[in-house]
Design goal:
Chain B: It comes from Marivirga lumbricoides. Chain B: This is ABC transporter ATP-binding protein. The complex is a heterodimer of chains A (about 240) and B (about 250). Chain A is elongated. The longest helix of chain A has about 40 residues. In chain A, helix 3 runs antiparallel to helix 4 and helix 6 crosses helix 7. By secondary structure, chain A is mostly helical. In chain B, helix 3 packs across helix 4, helix 3 runs parallel beside helix 5 and helix 4 crosses helix 5. In chain B, the strands form two sheets. Chain B has a six-stranded mixed β-sheet with strand order 6-7-8-3-9-10, sandwiched between helices. In chain B, strands 2-1-4-5 form a four-stranded antiparallel β-sheet, covered by helices on one side. Classes of the chains: A mainly alpha (about 240), B alpha/beta (about 250). Chains A and B meet through helix 5 of A and helix 2 and helix 3 of B.
Amino acid sequence: MKSFGSYLIFLGTMFVRRENFSSYFKLVISECHSIGWNSLIIVAITSTFMGAVTTVQTAYNLVSPLIQNYVVAQVTREMVILELAPTITAIVIAGKVGSSMASGLGTMRISEQIDALEVMGINSISYLVLPKIIAAMLMYPLLVILAGFLSLYGGYLAGTITGIITETEYVYGIRVGFNPFTVSFALIKAVVFAFLISSISAYQGYYTTGGALEVGVSSTSAVTKSVIAVLLADYLLAELLLN
Amino acid sequence: MIEVKNISKTFNGTQVLHNISGKFERGKTNLIIGSSGTGKSVLLKCIVGLIIPEEGKVLYDGRKFLEADKEEKAQMRREIGMLFQGNALFDSKNIEQNVMFPLDLLTDMSKSEKADRVNNVLERVGLENVNKKMPSEISGGMKKRVGLARAIVNEINYLFCDEPNSGLDPRSSLLIDELIQEITHELNVTTIVVTHDMNSVMGIGEYIMYLANGRNVWEGNSDTIISADQEDLQDFIFASKFMKKLKKTL
């Protein structure tokens, strides 16, 4: 509870004594590049394979003459949009971006760079953390959209190349009975997950004490706690928005 | 002038500072000295507000610092420059950007004004043609000078230096000490230096506060410290073989 309270105070401190808009703008753009652009390859690879594996495993489980082939694509679509693209990508991003945020801030803490900001009269939490959170909330939904498209494409490639499903069946399957709310749901999850990953990782890094060893501990802790928070939020959002 | 009154600080049940009081005058290089672990850096961090003491007051030219609200504290901090033990240069920024950083965030100066100011302070600390280098590309002594340039780039009234000589060779140490003293006199700022380097003590100690076990046990200057009668202080001063030899010749 004490840590949770401290986390809330940490979040509240971001919004007091902010610096001018232009300095934040530059930082947000730089963080967008770091969080979004630098994550493209890992997101592209994981999502393409995620879609491919989902298609193959769905087909493996749906071996019944009563189930038409296009259902494989339909199941792949639902799984990808509702769960895999936002959640699995969040776990990947927590590992890549979250650990990088925590170790970056942790290193700044132990090398007195954060103290230097404070001594200058700059709100270090606002200056260092707010741009990261804004950038994550802007870029992560875009990554989820990309992951969704690439997962469906990965499923298409795996399905058609191995002969599980024809091209026409796959395209029909991903279109039939499509509920646009699933995309909205995925994007809501993306924004919430981005906030959780960036804020928890930043919190872990910001309050690092000690030396290089503790930076590693903060980084690991950031990933662990972010992933747990993401999974918990995933369940709560499903209960709130789908039931 | 900075005045500290009855500063006490405890960490995990261990009292690190015991009722420390003292006055650090403007235009002088004020030194806080003592062996490792005596609370020098903790006292300095209490003075700049990075650590909040349980008891005591810190007055910046009569203005209460610890009791000030966040906005007032931020304003007062803008009059502060600090040279950190580990330099605290921003790894992702080059030398020019590091020195320009306080101007970027805290002033409305134009780009050319900021560039001129940065070049002036870099020149003042004896650094030229390093503007575009990264902190990782320069030596430890140069990093200290960049840290000092960043500390004075704004119009400051108070300069704090935490172990400015740590990790430097004797010649670089001397250069940093001289720079700190010259800048203190030139800008007429209140300077507080935390050190355990005896060369600094003898060279620039215009006011010296000696801490032992978290207590202020002696105050004086570089002229009076040699003749101080505290046994503990004498042990501190004449700890090295060189100083012991020197003592025999005195």
